[in-house]
Amino acid sequence: MRIAILTPGTGSYYCGACMRDNALAKSLHAAGHEVSLLPMYLPLQLDESQLPTADNPIFFGGINVFLQQKLRIRIPGILHKLLNNASLLRSAARRSHMTSAREHGEMALAMLRIEDSPFGQEMDKLIDWLAQEKPDILLLGTALQAGMIRELRKRLDVKILCSFQGEDSFLDGLPEPFKTDCWNELTARLPEADLLISPSQFYADLMRGRLNLPKQKIEVLPNGISLSQSDRELQLAPEPQPHTHAAQPPESPLLTAHCSLGTAAQRPTIGYLARMIREKGVHHLVEAFIHLRHELKHPDARLHIAGAMTAGDEKLVAELKQQLAAANLTEHVNWSPNIDLEEKHQFFSGLALFSVPATYPEAFGLYMVEALAAGVPLVQPDAASFREIIHRSQAGHLVSPNDPIALATAWHELLSNPTELQTLSKNGRRAAAEFYSVEAMRDRFLALAESLPNSLS
What we know:
Layout: E1 2-8, H1 16-30, E2 34-40, H2 62-71, H3 77-83, H4 86-93, H5 101-112, H6 120-133, E3 137-140, H7 149-155, E4 159-163, H8 167-172, H9 178-189, E5 195-198, H10 201-210, E6 218-220, H11 253-258, E7 269-273, H12 282-294, E8 302-307, H13 314-326, E9 333-337, H14 341-349, E10 353-354, H15 366-373, E11 378-381, H16 384-393, E12 396-399, H17 404-415, H18 418-435, H19 438-450
Parallel strand pairs: 1-2, 1-3, 3-4, 4-5, 5-6, 7-8, 7-10, 8-9, 11-12
Helix pairs in contact: 1-19, 5-9, 12-17, 15-18
């Protein structure tokens, strides 16, 4: 099968959707399919190796699109290519926080009404490239690309799959009238895809309701990660080795260090790996940690906060550091912004628990699967896709949303129960392999693609 995946790049920070699309593309390629991974807007920022065949241009390059939106001109070919330079785009991405909400709204609506937009030049380049490659399947990595479906159908013979990936939060953050207009355009255009897919049943149901499409079929395709050692990506924790000094040896090496009663290194660490923003609940995390140490009197717990941090996030991080300093806990918290793959391995290997107490309806949460694969038990809000993943994996606890005290209490109870931590760790490793591996994602994707009328194999 010939497959093209159009994925929105971020340029300057790691993006779960980009990592999902790259992992899927690599797995499809390894299985013998012809796969092209096509960056859109900005270069891909990945913490793993990219698809070997992914030497493709950046489509709808962010600077070109911005200028065309503002100036309504066709940019000459040489200048167009220059402005699509990856280094230049990465530099622009680091300043994207300076773009106004109105400008985001104008751009999003123009992309959803692409026939009436100034982006015909960009659309032509994409369609010309696809016409040469002749894919059987085109996967749009986000529903915000749905404005292209009509033009793609007019000019190409290709089956179009469109994936949801947290679009509601972005759209709800737009000012009016762009917010309402964008939602209306999505309602009109998404049913024109051959198939809609969602990373969780929760998000499929949410978007069906938000789009006012109660009978719209949306298939569930959970995100997956590579557990392959050859790629040096996150792996399942190894099975425990015999331990002559304990009647009941721990199930995971990382739990030996942090959670077993009567061992030497008793500094359990709670981890967070996501963008450092309020929507991901990092402020609740800090408040819960202060409560754990001061009110619940946990004597030695540490906190490790890692993940993407852009220039626009620095103010919040500074405020949280001040809050920790006022609580005399600065030395008990590690901050690791924009970590690479090796640093991610080290991060997970040092954790006893993992929490990202997001405050919005998270569509999936790839960070949860990474924690499962590393054998780290989860404590998450009883909301969104978290409930679905924890119920399926049996690898964590759910607490009241937006409740730092409940979060801290759950941490305290689990850190006092090494036997339960060992059980949750083992369940997580098993669930990662069975439900959330890249192979499981690939096989489900192929089954959906091959079920489409007249699709090729």
